[in-house]
Amino acid sequence: MPSRKILLDEEEMPKQWYCILPDLPKPLPPTIEPAKKAPGPGIVPLIFPKEIIAQEFSKDRWVDIPEEVREIYRIWRPTPLYRAVGLEKALKTPAKIYYKYEGTSPSGSHKPNTAVAQAYYNMKEGKERIATETGAGQWGSAIAFGCMTFKLDCTVYMVRVSYDQKPYRRVMMELWDAKVHPSPSTKTEAGRKILKEDPESTGSLGIAISEAVEDALTHEEANYGIGSVFNHVLLHQTVVGLETKKQLEKVEDYPDVIVGCIGGGSSFSGLFTPFYYDKVSGKAPKDTRFLATEATACPSITKGEYMFDHGDTARITPLIKMHTLGHDFIPPPIHAGGLRYHGIAPILSMLAQEKKIETRAYDQVEVFDAARLFAQTEGLVSAPEPSHAIKGAIDEALRCKETGEEKTILFMLCGHGHFDMQAFDDYLQGKLLPYEYPEEEVQKSMKRLRELYPWIDTLPY
Ligand SMILES: Cc1ncc(COP(=O)(O)O)c(C=O)c1O
């Protein structure tokens, strides 16, 4: 019987993060300032510490993890890698399935890997507070934890629908001393404008980002923190993949396929990019495939366009080249997971465009079916977001069953679902319905974007 749990000693935790920027097929397009119709960083230098900005653009492949950050990581890192023996048996697959479990962190997901680092760099530069947004509350609780460890204040704009549906995440943030506001709120211009147009607005990540960025821009003592999409966030998450590589070395295995869910793309990138490095540097023993899974309710890559768009609804951020559903995207409130952002990390978007990664979209019913099978065979209750990865891994394993191939499948279980019981209850009672975001809505958003910036398709990037 293979070992179910593959562990590392504390001193085997990586000392450096891996930066993919020098290994991309081509340089990332610059961000564009709409007023100038030309490249420029926009507000970015005004809301992040210098060290983070340097990481955002640095071409250094290996970046030292500060010892103060590793010291906090030690609370839960290294995280376990599991062999999904029970799931393999239930599927009767010849494939081997492994999953890296990030649910053992204080807030229950991969998000503290970057939250702690961001809080550290802000503290070092003398900032007193971080303002941020949160969707389902995973990121908000991670940054609340990160701020607490380095004695910073924390303000969280939480998407209204989640604020109402997930009160326990709010309590967790408040336990760690964060101030939490439902978004849209009356605290910012951006929030007040949305509430004037629609007093019943259920909010979106795009709106909450506008509020948090405005807060940081208008308060000297505060900076902004972000849980996904940006290059530095993907960088900090590589601690996950680097650990996994060491763990697989211990059992002399290597993945044929790596699966992860994508909201903004940070957890999946954290797991697969160190293996991508093996591939591009000729060190990989296999031609590993990388498979990103997203929600049909928010199909940023499978239905979105690869074009310049704002990262937020109020158009405060510069234009970023990424797969997008449009910055005015409001996700349907029926799907309350963390995969509801309109865009995808520029790094991941480019890799998808260059066909270096594959993408598949799943609806919430098939995803919860997969989560139930996983809970019943592996015991762990997964968050709805990584349940998209479980579904992807199951599909890959079933394909192996058809072909008889003994492949190695690795997936990212980036968080537990202990705060998602309402969603599981709705599922068990048959109240969840499959939902597909309509193609026409994407087209309408893209049309509005092109009307706003008629020159957008002439940009030479
Ligand atoms: C548990 C969990 N997984 C995944 C995501 C999606 O983000 P990302 O694609 O950056 O990992 C979220 C977003 O909040 C999340 O809470």
**Uncertain runs with pLDDT below 50, 5 residues or more?**
none
- As a whole number of angstroms, the C-alpha radius of gyration is 21 Å
Q: Can you summarize the main beta sheet?
A: 7 strands, mixed
Average predicted confidence as pLDDT: 95
Spell out which ligands are present.
Answer: pyridoxal-5'-phosphate
Under CATH at level 1, the class of the domain at 67-108 and 237-452 stands as: Alpha Beta
- How many β strands by DSSP? 17
| Helix/strand/pairing category | alpha/beta
Biggest β-sheet: strands ordered side by side in the sheet? 1-6-7-17-12-13-16
Task: Write the CATH fold name of the domain at 67-108 and 237-452.
Answer: Rossmann fold
- Strand proportion, as a percent range, falls in 15-25%
Helical coverage, percent range: 40-55%
- Shape descriptor reads globular
CATH architecture of the domain at 67-108 and 237-452: 3-Layer(aba) Sandwich
Task: Tally the helices.
Answer: 17
Structure description:
With 461 residues, the chain is of the alpha/beta class. It has a domain at 67-108 and 237-452: Rossmann fold, CATH 3.40.50. It has 17 helices and 17 strands. The strands form five sheets. A seven-stranded mixed sheet has the order 1-6-7-17-12-13-16, with helices on both faces. Strands 10-9-8-11 form a four-stranded parallel sheet, with helices on both faces. It has a two-stranded antiparallel ribbon with strand order 2-5. Helix 14 packs across helix 15. The longest helix has 20 residues, at 231-250. It is globular and about 60 Å long. The chain binds pyridoxal-5'-phosphate (PLP).
